DNA sequence: GTGAAAGCGCTAACAA
DNA sequence: TTGTTAGCGCTTTCAC
């Protein structure tokens, strides 16, 4: 009956009708089917957030921020994991055509032309939390990695550390590439040469440990501890690295200072608490969600590219 | 056209028809609408996992396990967060009647009669990863907290620690209540009296620090450090506590041994690495997912109640 | 093996 | 203001 639908959607009806419907709904425990509804009205009132790895605490921060904005606007947020492969990301974006949600926030680890194409062709609005080329013409919210690296390097410099090594994640990823570029620039701008650079296999804790090990095998030929500071591309790598340092009897920050990136919950949980570059993951999440909502309202707006500026959260891992 | 549907669903068709459809699909980029499909067939091929707090690493482990089982069975997993309030959990369960998914795995932090009722009345099968009364008649997979506590206490005892304190989470939660009971039993079974017990406001890192602080204010009246070991109700509390210990100049494990629970990724990431009771979160996730799939196949089966046995992961936070 | 047609549960347009 | 009806996009009879 159409009157039920009207009452439930708050459209005009007699007081008596409203009451009659409410009683029936109560009695039968009736709940409208969202699939049928969305099939009819063309909207699901659900939004999807896709992240590469739920184990990475930076996504926790982002997720919370997105959830907040989105639920305040009356949407349900569903989170899915893509894994590290770009093909799975593409599959997910393509899959949005099945009508799972009204929009998508995706934070892709790797980007290729297929992914960009799938985003451009996507049935529903997509906002990228990360860096895609401007020519892609999609809404993006990204961090300023170079600026973040500058904060890290200059902080270390101010603390008298000049022999700086760098533990990056895979450079074929979006953040990996950005960090590599940013680190090189920041070092150059300060007239420094990196003591060593290693590339971890991914952005996880165990990869950080392994990268630490590799770092030392590279340095073994050098003078008595050729480094006094390490910058890691994210907090998980930084913490893995600190474990490797400890295993070698080195004290953070006395022997080696460590700076992470993301300023995730892990940074304050680690010991010593980790000085970390806050790349604004909460704000990026918030802005991405807002962009998505705006895009859903008006699909003709010109794509926006928002850059969130970093800050440095100084903790005990640097002197 | 019905033939398209047949081809796409692998029903018998001429080779020519198959090819014709495939070409058209390719050309138009056609993707079937899952809402319309599920409206017709009555299944969404989606499953929901609801957790209280995405920031708790124990859920990461569980999520991964559920995801693996579920996707192998051809289902899509969507994750939603409920928050700590039981009313939101109830709302989520009730909301499943809207047809979001074919089943639900929920790991409730707090359980009341409303929640049990909503689960019993739920339109789709629900598996509880946690403890609900047997009379509820629902599939459950739960940990054996008492046994886990026994492992923790006996391990400490074997290491010569007898002055044991306990940092629990809120006792009005399912895990909080189970831990409290388990701790009391385990201590009693070994003829020990707890040195002190505190109840954190929730199961988070900052709550662990505060609880540590409270612990010391309780102990100040006692002999020179009245305790030599602390058991925490989960890893986040344990890590928070360790920070508080460090802030007071105490060394783990030399001065105070610490045992956590959950054996999450955080346990190995923390420093020193945390000895932790593995309550089988991965296995619980796996079993819960399997139970859900089985229940979807056959809704007449008697409810099963699976208990996963704990093990102890010994690391450096105990001597 | 294929096309036509009904219908899943809802809402928007129309008529009363 | 309310009831009737069509149709969202799909699958599944049912004839052919």
TrEMBL record, chains A, B:
Keyword DNA-binding applies: yes
Entries under InterPro entries matching the protein: HTH_LacI, LacI/GalR-like_sensor, Lambda_DNA-bd_dom_sf, Peripla_BP_I
Keyword annotations from UniProtKB, A to Z: DNA-binding, Transcription, Transcription regulation
Pfam families reported in the protein's UniProt record: Peripla_BP_3
Domain HTH lacI-type: 1-41
Highest taxon, organism lineage: Bacteria
GO MF annotation: an example: DNA binding
Keyword Amino-acid biosynthesis belongs to the record: no
UniProt-listed Gene3D superfamilies: 3.40.50.2300, lambda repressor-like DNA-binding domains
PANTHER family the UniProt entry points to: HTH-TYPE TRANSCRIPTIONAL REGULATOR GALS (PTHR30146:SF109), LACI-RELATED TRANSCRIPTIONAL REPRESSOR (PTHR30146)
Protein name: LacI family DNA-binding transcriptional regulator
